Structures are given as C-alpha cells and as structure tokens.
Recover the amino acids of this structure.
C-alpha cells in the first residue's frame, strides 16, 4: 500500500511538471510572431501583402508583415499612426494622438552629426562588434532569381554579405551568421532565437536580423545620389520589454538616415510579437527591399544603411 501511494505521488509530481512545461511552451510560441511573409502553398510565389490606408483612404504602407489592430507605424515623414482595423489584406490607421503613453514619452531622435560624414568626422568604430543573422534564410528577389524564395539559402544572405563588408570597411568587427532556420514557417523565430542567443554571448554593440519585405516594387524604391536603391524599414516587436530601448535606437538610425541619405528609410513598424528583440536592447529587424525587386538595389540599400549605422555607433 505504501509503495502504491508513493507511486501515485510520483505520477502526480511528474504530471504537474509536464503541465507547467506545456504551458510554458505554449506561452513562448504565442509570444513569437508568425512568419513575417507567409509563403503558403507555393513557396516560390512570394508572400501576400497588406495595404494600410489612413482615414481618408490614402495608402500609407504596403507590407507583407502580419498587421494587427494596435500595431503602430512611423512613416518616412515621421507621422505616427496606429492601426484601428484589419480586414483581410486591407487595414486602416489613424494618426496617433499625443498622450502620456510610454512610446510618446520617448523624445524624437536627433540625427548623428553626419552631414560631413565620412570626411570630417572622427568615427570610433575600432573594437566595436556587430552581429548579423537571418531568420528567413530562403528570402530572395524575383528580378534577380526569378523566385521570391530559394530554400535553403536565398539572395538575402548576399544582402547580409554586402552589409557586413561595408561595416567591416568602416572598422567594425562583424559576425555574419548564416545558420539555417528553414522552413519559412511560424516556428522560424523560435529556431533563430537560438542563433540570436549564441551571437549575444559576445556582447555586440548591436544585432540585426536582415529580411526583405513583400510589397509592390514601387513602394520600396528610391533614388539616392543618382543611384537606384531599395528602401529600408525597421521593425520593432511590441511584445517586448526592450521596446523602449529598441525604438530609441531605431529612431536615431532613421533620423540620421534622413539627413545622410534622404529617401532611404521607409519608416518604423511596431508589430505584435517580440521578433526576439526581448533578448537585447539594441536588436533590430531590417526589411531591405521587397520580393518584387532585385539583389542589386537591395545590396545598394544595405551599404547605405551600413553608413548610417557607422555614423550612429561611431560617435559613441
């Protein structure tokens, strides 16, 4: 009888332990955002996109990111919107009213002193470390590869190469991690989280997850100094204790880019989920161009945003 009672307690103990583990696993996965550009049945066809309009019907953003009510968007001209409704691939946003929320207490960022960069500034990049990785390794550009996705490794890794090379030329020590996190599904961010944790053990000054968006080509195009380039959008996770620090960093990058390379930035999108940015106060996700574009213009943008990062971090 005593042995039977002990066995019962053991089974109860392990039952409770299993329940706690199951709840923790479910909570973790709910916090991780769905694939930013769901590929669907045909993985080569590219993702769909959502069109976001203001209350007057004007298109303010088209993106393959998952769009939900209460997401926020700071446009290229610094208008701050909040999503009020989403129906299928259409969403509506209103201009966010000033209030005392945490986001609105963050002062508008000032650009780094980049007007004379790189000739007249002393930039302190030696000894500073940066990390680059890709949650969606298969992302590609249709005008280059004929496909929106090329498992296991797409064009996006070459965009990361261009960015890493530019940052190294500026004096940074850069780790460009190419660990594969396929398939391009709901659990990709769970898999890339392990990579991010590994990279953060070296305490980099910043870590960047490099993607490409899904949207019409003309919504992600710019011409800077006579050269055609893709635009860049920064993505911040709202469900994230580091959001304030991430957003401050993103705003500084945008403000500096607006001075150094007007037209490069498409804005800052704050979406539901964490995008693994809860791991670090200087973790950002960059959407560089769209699947409808080319590797060439995306690489141009990667080099330009690298100049901006150099200007921001090189003056600290």
């Amino acid at each position: 009888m005593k042995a039977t009672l002990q066995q019962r307690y053991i089974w109860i103990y392990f039952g409770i332990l299993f329940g706690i583990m199951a709840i923790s696993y479910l909570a973790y996965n709910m916090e991780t955002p769905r694939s930013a550009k769901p590929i669907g049945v045909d993985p080569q066809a590219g993702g769909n996109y959502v069109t976001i309009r203001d209350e007057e019907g004007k298109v303010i953003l088209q993106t393959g990111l998952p769009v939900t009510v209460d997401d926020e968007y700071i446009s290229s001209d610094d208008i701050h919107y909040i999503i009020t409704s989403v129906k299928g691939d259409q969403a509506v946003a209103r201009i966010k009213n000033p209030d005392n929320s945490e986001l609105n207490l963050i002062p508008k960022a000032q650009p780094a002193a980049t007007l004379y960069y790189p000739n007249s500034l002393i930039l302190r990049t030696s000894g500073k470390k940066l990390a680059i990785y890709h949650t969606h390794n298969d992302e590609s550009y249709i005008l280059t590869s004929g496909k929106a996705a090329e498992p296991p490794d797409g064009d996006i890794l070459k965009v990361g190469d261009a960015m890493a090379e530019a940052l190294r030329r500026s004096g940074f020590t850069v780790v460009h991690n190419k660990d594969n996190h396929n398939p391009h599904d709901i659990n990709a961010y769970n898999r890339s989280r392990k990579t991010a944790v590994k990279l953060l053990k070296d305490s980099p000054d910043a870590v960047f997850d490099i993607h490409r968006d899904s949207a019409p080509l003309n919504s992600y195009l710019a011409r800077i100094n006579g050269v055609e380039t893709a635009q860049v959008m920064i993505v911040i996770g709202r469900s994230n204790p580091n959001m304030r620090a991430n957003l401050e960093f993103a705003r500084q990058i945008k403000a500096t880019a607006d001075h150094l390379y007007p037209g490069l930035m498409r804005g800052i999108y704050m979406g539901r989920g964490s995008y693994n940015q809860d791991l670090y106060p200087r973790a950002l996700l960059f959407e560089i161009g769209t699947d409808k574009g080319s590797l060439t213009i995306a690489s141009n943008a990667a080099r330009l945003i690298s100049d901006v990062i150099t200007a921001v971090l090189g003056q600290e």
Notes: The longest helix spans residues 2-31. The chain has six helices and 13 strands. The mean pLDDT is 85. The radius of gyration is 21 Å.
